[in-house]
Every structure is written in structure tokens, then in C-alpha cells.
């Protein structure tokens, strides 16, 4: 099996080391694991691509590259330059430092990398490690992902729904709970949630020269979502698995909207 891995935390991120372990175990001794990841952190860039300017790419080692672009850029660079058209069997994106559940999903470069792979017709899984008070003092904050990630990825590869003939193919968003590995209760499938009464915002600060700068500020991450949805499952101790696709159409509204506009 040939596996491509990427992330949005950057080529030197500890979560990428965890993902490398997961990918190597899945690929086996006869397989290949290729890494094309951002040279610098790209958190929050979503599915952005560097459409208006070129990006530099550098080989750092055997099957290991860094690109000055987004995770989606890295997938494109891998498919059409690094791998010379020899498509991978699977793309893994992560393991992100922090959750990509609920509305975070829409901003996530980790998700963006997996989405680009799906648009290119390749099975893809995004993986993120929810962090919190119970992971703060762990020697390895990614413990839950490191221990349980291989089995989750293997089960999705072997038994997941991939809809290979669909135009907008499925990809998967996996979030590991903010707990030690021994306290993870299991795996549950759930929809993307929504954290009510909280949102991203900006916080103004002034530099020593008096100029105003705005920092993007996230909302509380431990706000519950509806029961059974991704963040709620994570906060209850479960690994959440959410099937996704890039089609943004609100299909449930088409018939009623057509009737109203007739």
C-alpha cells in the first residue's frame, strides 16, 4: 500500500510523527509512506490553495518533503510532482494538535488536506487529537491517537463506505477524545456538531508603536454539542468518526426552495 501523509501543523509537528507511525504500520514492510507537509504551520487555512502565487518545495529526506503552502497544496504537490502521477492508495491528514470537531471542521487545514484528496478521487481520513485538562500532564498528549489510531484507520480502510463512483467522494473526520488512551471508551459514528453560544472572534492589541493588530480568538472548546454529535462524543470519552463530502448543497432544501421560487 502506498500512503501519503500531510498535516496543517507543519513538517516538524509531533502529531505528524504519530501519523507516520500509524501509516507505516498500515502500509507494512512492503508498502510506501510519503510525507508532503507544510514547511510552516497552516492551521485554520481550511481548503485554501495557493492559486495566485507559486510555492517552493524541498526534499528533506527519503520520501519526505516540505512545501511552502497549505495542506491542500501539499496534496496537489504530492500527486502531480513528488509522486509523478503514481497516486497513493490512501491519504492521511493529521494528527492535528487540537480537535477538528463541530464548527472547527470548517476552518481546518487538516480537513482541507483530506478534502482535496477526496476531490482527486483518493480515499482520505483526517485525524485530530482533542486536548484538555486530562491530556495536559501526559508525557504524550497524543497518546489516545497513537494507541487507538491504527485500529480506527484500519477499520475504515477495510469496512468504510467510500462511494468510489460518486462525483463528491466520502472522506472521514476522526477525533480522539481528550483522555489517556486507557480511558477511551470506544468508537462511535456521529454527525458534525455545533457549539452554541460560542464562535470565533477577534481580540485587538496594540504594538509598542501604537498600531492596532487583531488576533483571531477561538471560543471555548469544551462547550457540549448536541448528544451523539462529534464533540459531544469526544467529551464523553469516545473516538468520533464522521463521514463527510465536499458537496455543500443543502439537499433537504432544494424541493421547498424550488416551490417557493416557482
From TrEMBL:
Gene Ontology MF terms: 3'-nucleotidase activity
What is the cofactor note?
Answer: Binds 1 divalent metal cation per subunit.
Needed cofactors, names only, are: a divalent metal cation
Q: What is its EC number?
A: 3.1.3.5
Where found in the cell? Cytoplasm
Matching entries from InterPro entries are given as: SurE, SurE-like_Pase/nucleotidase, SurE-like_sf
Q: Which residues form a coiled coil?
A: none
Keyword annotations of the record: Cytoplasm, Hydrolase, Metal-binding, Nucleotide-binding
Record: residues binding a divalent metal cation: 8-9, 43, 96
Q: What is its main location?
A: cytoplasm
Top-level taxon of origin: Bacteria
Which reaction(s) does its UniProt entry say it catalyses? a ribonucleoside 5'-phosphate + H2O = a ribonucleoside + phosphate
Q: Where is the Survival protein SurE-like phosphatase/nucleotidase domain?
A: 3-196
The keyword Cell inner membrane belongs to this UniProt entry's keyword annotation: no
Summary of the function given for this chain in its UniProt record: Nucleotidase that shows phosphatase activity on nucleoside 5'-monophosphates.
Family stated for the protein in its record: Belongs to the SurE nucleotidase family.
- Give the matching PANTHER family: 5'-NUCLEOTIDASE SURE (PTHR30457), PHOSPHATASE, PUTATIVE (AFU_ORTHOLOGUE AFUA_4G01070)-RELATED (PTHR30457:SF0)
In Swiss-Prot or TrEMBL terms, this protein is called 5'-nucleotidase SurE
Species of the source? Gemmobacter denitrificans
Amino acid at each position: 500500500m502506498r500512503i501519503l501523509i500531510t498535516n496543517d501543523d507543519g513538517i516538524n509537528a509531533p502529531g505528524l510523527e504519530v501519523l507516520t507511525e500509524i501509516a507505516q504500520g498500515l502500509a507494512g514492510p512492503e508498502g510506501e509512506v510519503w510525507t508532503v507537509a507544510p514547511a510552516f504551520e497552516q492551521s485554520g487555512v481550511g481548503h485554501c490553495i495557493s492559486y495566485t502565487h507559486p510555492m517552493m518545495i524541498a526534499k528533506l529526506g527519503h520520501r519526505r518533503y516540505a512545501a511552502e503552502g497549505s495542506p491542500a497544496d501539499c496534496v496537489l504537490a504530492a500527486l502531480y510532482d513528488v509522486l509523478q502521477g503514481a497516486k497513493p492508495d490512501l491519504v492521511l491528514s493529521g494528527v492535528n494538535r487540537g480537535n477538528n470537531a463541530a464548527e472547527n471542521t470548517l476552518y481546518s487545514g487538516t480537513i482541507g488536506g483530506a478534502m482535496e484528496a477526496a476531490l482527486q478521487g483518493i480515499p482520505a481520513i483526517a485525524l485530530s487529537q482533542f486536548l484538555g485538562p486530562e491530556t495536559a500532564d501526559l508525557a504524550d498528549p497524543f497518546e489516545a491517537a497513537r494507541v487507538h489510531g491504527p485500529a480506527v484507520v484500519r477499520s475504515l480502510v477495510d469496512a468504510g463506505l467510500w462511494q468510489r463512483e460518486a462525483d463528491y467522494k466520502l472522506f472521514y473526520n476522526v477525533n480522539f477524545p481528550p483522555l489517556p488512551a486507557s480511558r477511551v471508551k470506544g468508537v462511535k459514528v456521529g454527525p458534525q456538531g455545533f457549539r452554541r453560544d460560542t464562535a470565533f472572534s477577534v481580540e485587538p492589541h496594540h504594538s509598542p508603536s501604537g498600531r492596532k493588530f487583531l488576533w483571531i480568538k477561538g471560543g471555548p472548546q469544551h462547550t457540549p454539542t448536541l448528544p451523539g454529535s462529534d464533540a459531544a462524543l469526544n467529551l464523553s470519552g469516545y473516538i468520533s468518526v464522521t463521514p463527510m463530502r465536499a458537496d455543500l448543497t443543502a439537499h433537504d432544501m432544494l424541493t421547498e426552495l424550488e416551490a417557493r421560487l416557482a
